[in-house]
Hints:
The structure holds two protein chains of two kinds.
Chain A: H1 3-24, H2 28-48, H3 52-77, H4 91-114, H5 116-119, H6 127-130, H7 133-141, H8 145-167
Helix pairs in contact in A: 1-2, 2-3
Chain B: H1 4-24, H2 28-53, H3 57-87
Amino acid sequence: MNIEIVAFAILATIGIASAILLVLQKNPVYSALLLILHFMALAGLYLLLNAQFIAVLQILVYAGAIMVLFVFVIMLLNLQNEQALVDNFNIRKIVSFILGVVLFLQFAVFFLVKAKNDIDIKKSPDSIDAGSIQNIGEALFTTYLIPFEIASFLLLVAIIGSIFLAKRKIE
Amino acid sequence: MIPLSFYLILSAAFFSIGVIGVLTRRNAIIVFMCIEMMLNAVNLSFIAFASFFGDSSGQVFVFFVMAVAAAEVAIGLAIIIALFRNKLTINIDEINILKW
């Protein structure tokens, strides 16, 4: 058994299990904790794909900053548990479940059957260098300099907007 | 050696679970978490393609997706707090002031 395949299987299982439990969970606090687990599994998958910088960023930004925001809002709102999903099965939920499964089958059939020959390429030997901080920083500050500046402006607008929205009552 | 299609199918599975969550759950915060999950599923396929083609452009795009997601979370949670302050609920079936 290859160690890469074992690691992939474990991380994929954790990711899918935490995602399904997140959707089924009644209490939003448990959903938030499961989402952190999901992000950790994704960071592990990024490491398997030689994307070290993005894996660190995933843990810092998603599992750190964004989830702190979520948990804070859950604490501020002090919500009651939603009714369990299984208790109130109606036609809309069944239809949306079927739609989700059909969407997944479409992707899976496309990747497995239609695009198999085009898509099953060998992992490039450059991929170890491509994920390094040096290469990403170079691309970020040369080719993608203008999008990078726009992203910083977007974050500034988001800060101002969220302060404005959270501060006063909507008439 | 794991083929690229495994990563893409895993990413499709994450995305579909996120879609099911958005469509079935009524709690606005959990709907929001499922949207984050869908963004991350797309990030995973970006990283998989970037790694298999040995090009760092895909990883730069993931960086931008993360910046946009951070902005989106800040705004979205502010909207949820404003909604809760006005209507005392975040059940998205009861928030229908835009519906005529």
